[in-house]
Every structure is written in structure tokens, then in C-alpha cells.
Amino acid sequence: MAFPYLEAVVGFMIFMYIFETYLDVRQHVALKLPTLPKTLEGVISEEKFKKSRAYSLDKSNFHFLHGFVTILMDSAILLYGVLPWFWKKSGDTLESIGFDSENEIYHTLAFLAGVMIWSQLTDLPFSLYSTFVIEERHGFNKQTILLFFRDMIKGMFLAVVIGPPVVAAIILIVQKGGPYLAIYLWGFMFVLSLVMMTIYPVLIAPLFNKFTPLPDGTLRSKIENLASSLSFPLKKLFVVDGSTRSSHSNAYMYGFFKNKRIVLYDTLIQQCKNEEEVVAVIAHELGHWKLNHTMYSFIAVQVLTLLQFGGYTLVKNSKDLFLSFGFDTQPVLIGLILFQHTIQPIQHLVSFGLNLVSRAFEFQADAFAKKLGYSKPLRDGLVKLQEENLSAMNTDPWYSAYHYSHPPLVERLAAIDEADKKAD
């Protein structure tokens, strides 16, 4: 008797939905608490706390609705054979316009085009509500409807330009890979990731945001001096106009080897009136680099990708897997999709493990910034970012342990304060 892959996948999806909804309920209860955690009393203003609480509860209520609709839709798509039906219809559409549906590359691209349109249409109401109701209500949204749809069209255009050659290459590799298929697939994805990391900040990101050099001044000098003291090969220092879309703030760095760049959101500079707070945030980010967190994360992703492709090669010709989901053929892309569904339990465990590692890295980067003498400005900067982003002040420990890749502010401040006490 064949293994019931479809039933097992849908059953696990529903189980995870119930489990994650339980965590969401716990978090919702925490968000409704009328008082600040003791660690934040006197640190966060009552006004900011009330605004944060209202914003977090709005997002939580929206998440319940979105999650319910998503699990219903995803379960129905699998149980009612929408995927095999859509695969067949994409082939019929190809033939109706004079293309050969037996060509797997053409057939796959037609299928993906339909999936992309479907995904955009079904997700659009939720995206619009999130951006123009929730974010707008709490003062974060800065983009217009025109800009929203322009970004969406640009994203679809990039998918049309980049997607076909990547999909075609993957199909050809699977068809001709032989016993070393997993190595070839991993090698292709490794090179592709390097290419994308190279061209994204130079060619793609500027399509959505404007990047300008940070003007000469004390802030630029402080960041350059900090980078120089750590032998960080800073080549360019940019400010990005994040305020054109949102008042949320951030900072990040990218680049290979001796060509590193740092990007500051203009909102970060606006919110942190004290330049030392901005520099402290950068010191935290440089801590990730100095402690090799970026390299470790990259290596972990490559190992997991290789293992994933290794697992795929074991089941890619499993007729029972395809039949269980309603397919009488074995297309490469469909095989990859079905394999992703079947390894969901492992993916959830891996994601949880990576979150634990990421949280440990965040504590280490905070400690690194503190050792550089940025304890107070880092503390003040973290508080300011928490206030300005209206991040959740009260968090359920189970929820945060499962979902958060960054520790809650309460834990980060406690770690910084504990280090200060030991130093005293």
C-alpha cells in the first residue's frame, strides 16, 4: 500500500496551524497586558506603550484572519487537486497559442506564470489592508497607492526577467544531472546566490529606493573611524530613502571581501537624534561581521541546501509521491514543490534551531558593541528603535522563543545591564 503523502502533508499543515495559533493566542494575551514589563518601566513612555499596544493588537487580529484564510486555501488547493488541474490547464493554454506542451520548460513557465498571477491576486487584499489600513492608522505608511502598485509591477517584471533562465537551468540540471545531481544543483544555487548578492544592491535595489552617499559630517566620520579601528573594509556608506514607504527604520551591510558597504535608513538617522546611538547600532552590525556570524550563517545555508537537494534526489522519481497528489506525470518543478511539502516537519525544526542560533548571535553582537564602549548609546538606541517602531513591549516567552530571530528588548537590555553589573 502506497504511503498517503497528501493526507500526511495536509494533516501536518493543520497540526502546525493549530499549534502556531495556540502560540498566537498566548502572544495576544501578552499584548493585552495593561502595564509595561518591569525592566521597561521608566524607560518607555506611557504614551509610546499605549501606541505600541494598539499597533501590536491590530496586527495580531489581522494575523488571525490571514492565517485562517491561508490554511483553508492551502488545504483546499492540495485536497481538491488544484495543482494537477492547474498543471493540465497550463499545458492546454500553451497548446492553444501554438506552443508545445510536451516541452517541460515551456510548460513549467506557463504554470509558474499562472501561479504568480494567482498569488498576487489572492494576497493583494491582505497587502492593501496591512499597508493602507493598519500601517496607515498607526502612522507608518508613507507610500501612495500608485507607488504600491508600481513596486508590485516592478517585482513581477523582475520575476519575468530572472525567473525563466533560472527555472530552465534547474530543469536541465535535473534531467541531465545523473548520480551527482545534488552537487550540481547545489553548485548552481551557490553561484546564483553569489550573483544575486552582487547585482541586487547595484541593479535591483535602486529600482525601488534611492541610495545616496552619507553626507560629510561628524556621523560619517564616526562610522568611518569605527570601521577603520576594526579593519572593516568599508568602501561606501549610503543612506536609503526608506521614509518614502514607511517610517520603520533599519541598517544593514553587504558586499564581498574588501568591498563592503553600509546602508543606513534615513528614518534611523531621523529617529536617533544622538549620533552615538546610530554609531552604536552600526557597532552591533559590525560585531556580526567581526564575530563571523555572516560567514557561519552563509555556510549553514549552503549545508542545508546541499542536504535538501540530496533528499530530493532520493524521492524525485517516486511515482507514489506524484500519484498521491494527483499527478500522472513527474515534472521537475512539481517534484521540487511536493518534496518541499513532505519535509515540512524538518523545515520547522531547522527554522527553530536557526532562530536559536540567531538570537545567540544578537546577544554576542550586543556584547561586542558594549566592549567597544557603546553600552549606553546602544541601550538608548535599542529603546529608541523599539519606541519609534512601536514594537511589542510585552511578549509571551513561548511565542518569542518559537518565532523571534532577535531577542525581545527586555532580554537584550537585561543582558547589557548584567554585563555592566559584572564590570562594576
TrEMBL record:
Record: residues binding Zn(2+): 284, 288, 362
GO cellular component annotations of the record = endoplasmic reticulum membrane
Gene3D superfamilies per the UniProt record, alphabetical: Metalloproteases ('zincins'), catalytic domain
Q: Where does the record place the Peptidase M48 domain?
A: 214-418
Q: Which reaction does it catalyse?
A: Hydrolyzes the peptide bond -P2-(S-farnesyl or geranylgeranyl)C-P1'-P2'-P3'-COOH where P1' and P2' are amino acids with aliphatic side chains and P3' is any C-terminal residue
> Quick check: keyword Magnesium in the entry?
no
Q: Which keywords does this chain's UniProt record carry?
A: Endoplasmic reticulum, Hydrolase, Membrane, Metal-binding, Metalloprotease, Protease, Transmembrane, Transmembrane helix, Zinc
How, per the record, is the cofactor bound?
A: Binds 1 zinc ion per subunit.
The protein depicted here goes by the name CAAX prenyl protease
